Amino acid sequence: MSAISSVNLNNRIQAMDVMRGIAVLGILLMNIPAFSVHEFFLFWNDPLRGELTLNGFIYKASVVLFDGKMRGLFTLLFGAGIILFIENKKDNSIQVADAYFRRTMWLLLFGIIDGYILLWGGDILYEYALCGLLLFAFRNLRARHMFLVSFLCLAFFTFLNGRKYQTNKEKFEAYIEATTVLKSGKTLTEEQQTAKSEFEKILGYGLPFSKETIEQLKQDIKERTIIHKSGYLDIFAVHSEEVYEYQSAGFYSDFWETFGTILLGMGLFKLGFFHYRLKHKLYLFLSFFMLPLGLAICALAHYLHAETQAELMQCFWKPFSTVYIEYPGRIFATVGYAAAILLLCQINWLKSFLSLFGNVGRMALTNYVMQTILCSLYFYGFGLGHYGEYDAKGLLLFVMCIWIIQIIYSNIYLRFFQMGPLEWLWKRLTYGKNFDNV
Hints:
The protein contains 19 helices and no strands. The protein is mainly α. It has one domain. The radius of gyration is 24 Å and the shape is globular.
C-alpha cells in the first residue's frame, strides 16, 4: 500500500485560493470590533445622534456586505477542502481516515491555542475541527443528499435563533394584558406584575434607554476597557472564561449553521461548482440575481431592526422575526459571492491582480492567526494599548493597513517557500515523514 502524502501544489484550484484569500481578509473587518472597541459605540452611533453619519454608514455597510458572508465563504471552502483532501488521496484505506483525523485534531489544537493563548474569543478553527470530526461520515453522500441535510441544518439554525422573538412576543402580549388591567383600575396579580416588569426590561434596551440599561452599559464599557488595557495575564483570566463559554455552549448554538454550511461546501465541490462544471448561466444567475437578492434581504432585515421603544412596541405586531429573512439572505449572498469570484477568476486581464489574493488564500491559516496576533499587540494593554480609541472610520483604515501587510507578506513569502509557516507545520504534523517538504 502506497504512503499517504500531501496534496501537490499543481493540484491546487486557483479560484478557491482567491476565494479563500478574499474571505480571510473580509473576516477581519467583522472581527475587528471584538479586538478594538465596545461594539455599543458602533451599533448605536447613528441612533443616538438621530442621523446618518459616515461612521454609521461604514458600520452598516460592512454588516450588510460582509457580516456572515465572509465567514460563510471561509466555511464553504473548508467543506470543499474536506472533499478535496479525501479525493486527492485516491484511496479509501484506513490511512486516509488516519491522516484526515490527525489533520483535524491538530486543527482543533490550533483553535484552542488561538482562543486561549492568543486571546481571540471568536476563533472558528476549533468549531471547524469539531464539525470536521463528524462530517467525515458524510463524505460519501451524493451531492443532492448533502444539500438536503445542509438545508435542514440551516433551517433549524434559523428557527432556533428566531425563538427569542416568539418568547418576547409572548411577554409583549402579557404586558399589554397587564397594562389593560391597570387602566381598568384593577390590581395586578403577582404573575401579571412579573410579566409587566419583564417586558419593561426589554423596552429598556430601546431608545431612550432605561436608567438600569444605561448603568449596565457604563459598567460593562468601563470594565472591558480596563481589562483590555491591562497586562496579558489579566486579559487571559477574563478571555479564558469567555472562550470556554464560546467553545462549549456557544459551539452548540452555532453548530447547526457551521455544520450546514460546511456540508453545503462539500456538496458544491462534489457537484463541480468550484471546477466550473456547471452551466455558465447558473454562475451568472447566482452572481447577478442571488447575490443582490441576498444582500437586499440582509439590508431589509437590518432596516427593520427595532432601535427605539416605540419600534419595539410595534415590532411584536409583525408575524415573524427578521431573523427568518436575514439568515437565508446570508446564505444566498455567500453562494452568490462564491459564484461572482469564480466568474472574475475567468477574466484574463484580472488574473494577475487576483493572484495577489490567491497567495493570501494559500496562507489562509497563517494569515488568520496573524490577524489575532497583530490586533492583540496593537489594541491590548500588553502591546500598544489602543483599545477603545478608534471609531468606524479609524477601524476601517486599520483593517486596510492589515490587508496591505498580509497581501505583501504573502506574495513575498511564497516567492521563496511553497506554503505558509503554519500550513507547513500543519501538514508536517499531519503526514509526518511522508510530508513532501520543498
